[in-house]
Amino acid sequence: MEKFIRHSGVGVPLRRSNVDTDQIIPAVYLKRVTRTGFEDGLFAAWRGDETFVLNNPAFASGSVLVAGPDFGTGSSREHAVWALKDYGFKAVLSSRFADIFRGNSGKQGLLTGQLSQDDIELIWKALENAPGTEVTVDLDQRVVTCGEIVAPMQVDDYTRWRLMEGLDDIGLTLRHTDAIDDFETARPSHKPRTLV
Amino acid sequence: MGQTLAEKVWDAHVVRRAEGEPDLLYIDLHLVHEVTSPQAFDGLRLAGRPVRRPDLTLATEDHNTPTLDIDKPIADLTSRTQIETLRRNCAEFGVRIHSLGDVEQGIVHVVGPQLGLTQPGLTVVCGDSHTSTHGAFGALAFGIGTSEVEHVLATQTLPLRPFKTMAINVEGTLSPGVTAKDIILAVIAKIGTGGGQGYVLEYRGEAIRALSMEARMTICNMSIEAGARAGMIAPDETTFAYIDGRPHAPKGKEWDAALEYWRTLYTDDDAEFDVEVSIDADALEPFVTWGTNPGQGLPLSASVPDPESFADESDKAAARRALEYMALEAGTPLRDIAVDTVFIGSCTNGRIEDLRAAAAVVKGRKKADTVRVLVVPGSAKVRLQAEQEGLDKVFTEFGAEWRHAGCSMCLGMNPDQLAPGERSASTSNRNFEGRQGKGGRTHLVSPLVAAATGVRGTLSSPADLEPVG
Ligand code: SF4
C-alpha cells in the first residue's frame, strides 16, 4: 500500500447528503471478480446527467471529493472504495461518514477526513466559484487547505499512522500469530464448527 | 460496574489488547457469499496465504442466484462468473459451500441460524451488512468489507475498536396486525438512518421478549438501516429452544456447557448504556416507508408528508428529492398508493413464519389484477417446509409466483427486478433509489402489509380487507 502523507489535487464539490454505497456504485457492478477497473461504475446513475459535477471538465480530473454529511451509508460493499480509488480519488472529506465505509477506506489507503459542516460549506463555495481549484489534504498536520480556507481535519491516530506508514492489515496481525494460537487452545469445545 | 451484553461478548473474544491500538478480536463464525468474497480469495492467492480455519467458515450462493429454472445454467454471464468463482475458491481453499440446488442453499443470514451455527455469545462476521441479523441470538454479529473478509480468512481475527452501546427499550404489547418489522421501521424513523452510527443496539423490554426468534431476526437485521454496527437481543428460553436439535447445535455434555455459558449472556442490572431510547409497543401501528431511505417511514394511516413540514433543512431537501423520485404528492393518504409489484422475501422477512403470516392473509383470496406478487423463500429449506405445509398452494391459488430461494428482488442482481417507474411493496430492508431495479420505487412493509397490499392493489393492512366470504 502506498504511503499517504500529503496530497494536493482538484477538489470536487458533491452537494448531496446521505450518499449511500448504492449511489457510489450500483449493485450491477458488484458482479465482477477482479480488484481493479471499477471507475466506470462510480456514481453511475448520475453520470448521465450533464449537470452532475464530474461531467464538468474542470472537475473531471478531481482527486479530493468534498461530500455532504453521512457519506457511504448503506451496504458494506468495498467496491465503493475501489470505484472512488480507481477513478482517481485520494481523499473524501465530509462532516460524517458511515462506519463501514470509513473502515473500508482506511484499509485501502483512501483517506476519509472529517471536517465541520461549516468548513465543508466554505470549501463547496470556493470550489464552485472557481472550478478546478486544488485542495491540499495534509494528513501529517491534519489540516485541509483550499485557497484561503484552512480547516482542521479529524482522523483517528491509528488510521493516520497506518496510512502514513502504508501498512497492510494482514501482515500486521500475523505478527501476533502466537497470541491467536493461544486463544484457540483455550476456546470452549462447545463452539460450533462448519466441517464435521 | 456491570457490563452490557455486547461488552461481555466482546471481552470474551479479545486475542490481544495494546495501548493505542484496536483490539484483536477472534471470530467464531465467518459466513461467505459470492459477491464480496472473490477479491478476498484473490488477495490470499496473491500473497500465498491459506484459509486459517476452514472449519469456522461457511459459504452459500444467494445474491445472484436465479429463482426460476435453477437447474439450467445461469443465463447472466457475470452472475455465472461470480458463482463459479466462489465454487472454485471454496474447492481450492477447503471451504464448505452450499450451491444452488443444494437443500441447504439460501440467503446467508437465513442459512446460518437454520443450521444451528448461529449461537449465543459468538462473534459472527460476513461481507454483508445484514449480518446484524445473527445478533438476535445474543451473538455479536456485524458486516465487514472485502479486505476484512480476506483478513478473517487469513487470520480468523479482526482488529477492531469497541463499539458504543445503545439500549432500545420496547415496552408494552403489540396490537394484532403489528409485527417486528413495524417495530424496527418505527425505531429507524425515530433515531434516523445515522442514529445508530458507531453503536451496537440492544433491543430489550417486554415486547422484545415476547417475540419469536424469527421476529427477533427481522429486528436485528435492520439495525444496519439505523446506521448501527450490530443489533443484539439477550438469549433466553426462546433462543435455546430454537437452537436445540438443529444440525450444528451442541449435543449432550457440550449442550449443558454451552447452556451454562449462554445463561450468563445478559446486560447486568448495574451496567450503563451510552444511550437509551424508548419505544411504546402499545402505540405502534403497521409502518410503511414513503421515501428513499428506511428512516422515511410513517404509520400506514398517515399521509405522504409535506417536505416543508420538516424542521431540518437537509431533511426538507431529502424529502423533496424522495417525493420526486417516488412520484408522490404530499398529502396523499398512504393507503391510496397503488403498487405494481408485491415482493415477499429477503433476509428480513423470507423465513417460514413470514411466509405463514402472509399466507394466512391471502388464503382463499385472489390478488388484485393490477399487481404481480412474487414469493421468494429465504432458503431452499424454507421453501421445502412451506411446501410441506401447503403454503405454496395458498400463494399460487392467490395468483402469486412461487419461486426458488435467494436474495432476488431485494437487490435485483438476478433477473427479478422492477422496471423503471414501477412501484413495489416489499418486505425487504432497503428502499434506496434503484435498489430493486433502475428507476424502481420501493415501499418497505411487513409481510402482513405486503399480503394485504397484494389483495387490494394499494398499500393496506389485513384490517382493511373484507372477511373471506
Ligand atoms: S436478502 Fe437482500 S439484504 Fe439480505 S443478504 Fe440478500 S441482498 Fe442483502
UniProtKB/TrEMBL annotation, chain A:
Q: Which GO terms describe its molecular function?
A: 3-isopropylmalate dehydratase activity
Gene Ontology BP term (one): L-leucine biosynthetic process
Q: Which reaction does it catalyse?
A: (2R,3S)-3-isopropylmalate = (2S)-2-isopropylmalate
Keyword set includes Lyase: yes
Specify the signal sequence span.
none
Q: What pathway or pathways are given for this protein in its record?
A: Amino-acid biosynthesis; L-leucine biosynthesis; L-leucine from 3-methyl-2-oxobutanoate: step 2/4
Q: Specify the Aconitase A/isopropylmalate dehydratase small subunit swivel domain's residue ranges.
A: 1-116
Source domain of life is: Bacteria
Query: What keywords would UniProt list here?
Result: Amino-acid biosynthesis, Branched-chain amino acid biosynthesis, Leucine biosynthesis, Lyase
- Any GO CC annotation of this UniProt entry: 3-isopropylmalate dehydratase complex
Q: Report any Pfam family annotated for this entry.
A: Aconitase_C
Q: Which InterPro entries match?
A: 3-IsopropMal_deHydase_ssu (IPR004431), Aconitase/3IPM_dehydase_swvl (IPR015928), AconitaseA/IPMdHydase_ssu_swvl (IPR000573), IPMI_Swivel (IPR033940), LeuD (IPR050075)
Return the EC number. Answer: 4.2.1.33
The UniProt entry, under HAMAP family, shows: LeuD_type1
So what does this one do? Catalyzes the isomerization between 2-isopropylmalate and 3-isopropylmalate, via the formation of 2-isopropylmaleate.
Q: Which family does it belong to?
A: Belongs to the LeuD family. LeuD type 1 subfamily.
How does the annotation summarize its subunit structure? Heterodimer of LeuC and LeuD.
Q: What is this protein called?
A: 3-isopropylmalate dehydratase small subunit
UniProtKB/TrEMBL annotation, chain B:
**Transmembrane residue ranges:** none
Concerning SUPFAM superfamilies, the annotation shows:
Aconitase iron-sulfur domain
Keywords, comma-separated and alphabetical: 4Fe-4S, Amino-acid biosynthesis, Branched-chain amino acid biosynthesis, Iron, Iron-sulfur, Leucine biosynthesis, Lyase, Metal-binding
Q: Which InterPro entries match?
A: 3-IsopropMal_deHydase_lsu, Acnase/IPM_dHydase_lsu_aba_1/3, Acoase/IPM_deHydtase_lsu_aba, Aconitase_4Fe-4S_BS, Aconitase_4Fe-4S_dom, IPM_dehydratase_rel_enz, IPMI_cat
Amino acids binding [4Fe-4S] cluster: C347, C407, C410
Cofactor(s) of this protein: [4Fe-4S] cluster
Catalysed reaction equations from the record: (2R,3S)-3-isopropylmalate = (2S)-2-isopropylmalate
Example GO molecular function: 4 iron, 4 sulfur cluster binding
| Pathway assigned to this chain's UniProt record | Amino-acid biosynthesis; L-leucine biosynthesis; L-leucine from 3-methyl-2-oxobutanoate: step 2/4
Q: What is its EC number?
A: 4.2.1.33
Task: Return the annotated region ranges for Disordered.
Answer: 418-444
The record describes how the cofactor is bound as: Binds 1 [4Fe-4S] cluster per subunit.
Sorted alphabetically, the Gene Ontology BP terms of this entry are: L-leucine biosynthetic process
* Residues annotated as domain Aconitase/3-isopropylmalate dehydratase large subunit alpha/beta/alpha: 7-457
Q: What is the recorded function of this protein according to its Swiss-Prot or TrEMBL entry? A: Catalyzes the isomerization between 2-isopropylmalate and 3-isopropylmalate, via the formation of 2-isopropylmaleate.
Q: What family does the entry list?
A: Belongs to the aconitase/IPM isomerase family. LeuC type 1 subfamily.
User: What quaternary structure, including any partners, is listed in this protein's UniProt entry?
Assistant: Heterodimer of LeuC and LeuD.
- The name on file for this protein is 3-isopropylmalate dehydratase large subunit
Q: Which organism is it from?
A: Jiangella ureilytica
The opening ranks of the lineage are: Bacteria, Bacillati, Actinomycetota, Actinomycetes, Jiangellales
